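Quick one: structure for this chain?
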Amino acid sequence: MEGCNALQQEPDRSTDIILGSELENFDSVTNPIELSIGLRFDTWEIAERYLKEYGRQNGFVVNRHRVEFVEFHDCQSENSVRIAKKRTFACEYSGKYKPNKSKPIEQQHNKGSKKTDCKWHVNMSKPHNSDFIHITFMDLEHNHKILADNARFATTFRKFNQSILNEIERAVVYGRCDAYTIRNLLQPLYPNQLFLTQDLSNAIQKIKREKQITGSDASQLLKFLLEQQKEEPMMFVQPLINVDSNRLCGIFWMTANQIILWSRYSDVVLHDNTSRTNKYNFPLSLFILVDNDGKSRLGAQAFLNDETQESYEWILQQTLDATGIEPKVIITDMDPAMDAACQTTYSNAYHVHCIWHMAQNLPKRLKNKLGTTDFKEFIHDFWKTRNSLCVEVFEQRFQTLLNKFPNGNDYLHDPIYLTRHSWARAFTSRVFTAGMQSTQRVESINSIIHKVVSSSSTMANVAEALDSRMQKEEMNKSFIAWKYQSTMYYQPFVVENFFSNINSIIQKYLSPQIVEEIHKQMCESVLYRCEMLDIEDAFKFDEDQLDQNEISENQAMTNGQEEVNNIEEYYDYRQTYLKALINSVPKESIKEVWQIIPYLVPNSYQHVIILNDGTHLCTCLLLVSHGIICRHYFKLMIENPNALFHILLMPTRWLQDDAWNQIDLISNKPFIGTSSKNLKSTSSSDPRIYPIPKHHNNIQEVEVRHHTQKKVYYGRIMGHFKQALNYSLEDNDQENLDNIILTYIAEKELKQQNKTQSVKRKTLKDNDNQNLSNEFKT
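Got it. Here's what it folds into:
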């Protein structure tokens, strides 16, 4: 050992004495340590440290086993002094396990033990006439296996020294750091120290007890959220407390900004849970919205202690209590508990299943039952069934699946068939989902959250991470708006030459991301040609009911591409049939029917129906599912003066933020075509003021906006009132504040009374005039 004198057997030489200064820091001991009879140490502390380092180097722990004292009389203090005369140090596996179980057997826990009665031990002695401790006997044989990781994981070697404990105390007391953060801070400073979560947590809790840092994780979370609520009175916080144990078993919260986002973008809501975000294993429940820039936004969040139907019903109810608005569509995974909760709490919402989760569940549930060969054939047939464009075809194909693969019937019946409205394209294609078919947006946010929290994090840490995420979302939103306003975008040739007047409107009112999507559709419109169909012939048309799955498979084989599971991933394929489209509206409301044919792939034609109220429907269903006017209709606008544009043909959710306050003005804008000659104004009685009420209820959205604005005013006034109340209490001026409030109330009550009396007088006067008129008539 470097710095240590060589060990000698001659007792009269000082070189066999271990003075101990070299052992103050175990990490500096690099040379192998040896034991021998007669080895001498200056103190018992040095001897013990030497033996423990010997054990560490050899992969086991050395503990104190036995001690023998001798008493001396101190003449100066006149007290007896006990001095250790002999000590025995043994392997931690020494001794035998002695169970001490007094509890009934059904209440006993089967604890493990390291005790193997290992005989390894070292005897040491300090004779009365000597100044040194000597090794007098050694038995260095073990009766157990020496584990290679003992030097890392044994409790003795993991113990934090005082320097590390001081750093932990500083982080806890002044930084309010958790175990995850403290580990990241200390590991670079102490690279050879193992920082297990349980050791850090124990040290943190001990420091909190000693420093009297009060407050559990639940109380810290509530404190964090309630402090936010003081700044934002409109914020909604709802804990769920178990009345029997008085413990937190759930908490839901929405910030003031999230409530506003919900009022605008809750037409489509995604929900999913993420695990391993906190040390209590409470699932983190996230609601995700898609804003007018197409960006994911945190809409609401909650901690739950389980994933039962009752817990899901509770969090869904909290969204209703906080906003008063039920989503039109909610996209979730295939959790049966969430399915049941949506049916009871979101009874009017359309429930869509994440298609990615379904694709993951099918192999897990059916591959073993069907076998590899049959399962491969089943998957092909299943997606073909799922992609059916009409209900009748779907039902026929699903029955064929049941007959062909009877071993999978249990799972195919329940839950697959029972939830068909949530995943089969024949049903979901008619629903606005902003183009989403999975909860992938939630998964992406989950991955971001997991970068800053872990299974050792507190719930308060997670809440802070979510708050940081929301701030970044707002900053990104502001940056996008700034970039759009400060950058000059040169328009493509097609947009500038064919749709310039429409472009000026969408640039003014719609968000940049949606404008870009519309430009894409405009530019691609030149790849098509149009043919008008006779309305009577359109009702008889059925050629488009040729199985598109077969067409896609043939094209995939021709192009050497893999088969695409979801028909909506085929860019230019029909999502419904013409017959289904015209049967969805009254015949007398149909003005024209057109066939839009691509030059390159004529078989992939679409049909557009123009209705008398200025709206339209296309078999691509892009406007219905994505809320974007399609390239097929833009092509028709170039060719047909009856194909007109209005910005409210698309959902108001795509409007810029400042355009929300101009909906009444926007509604009264005229329908326009591709040139000003096609301009047609609207009047207050024209049904085109609020286009496509079948798909987007714009009037309801305006009402929601006014309802939310009232909540904003309420929150702002309550905040001012609380501030005034605090000032009055500080200055002992409550009476003055009370008089001000009473004066305001009296003024409003007098105004209300005068209004009521005025109505009564008018009613009496009208009655008198009516009676006088009747007298003249008689």
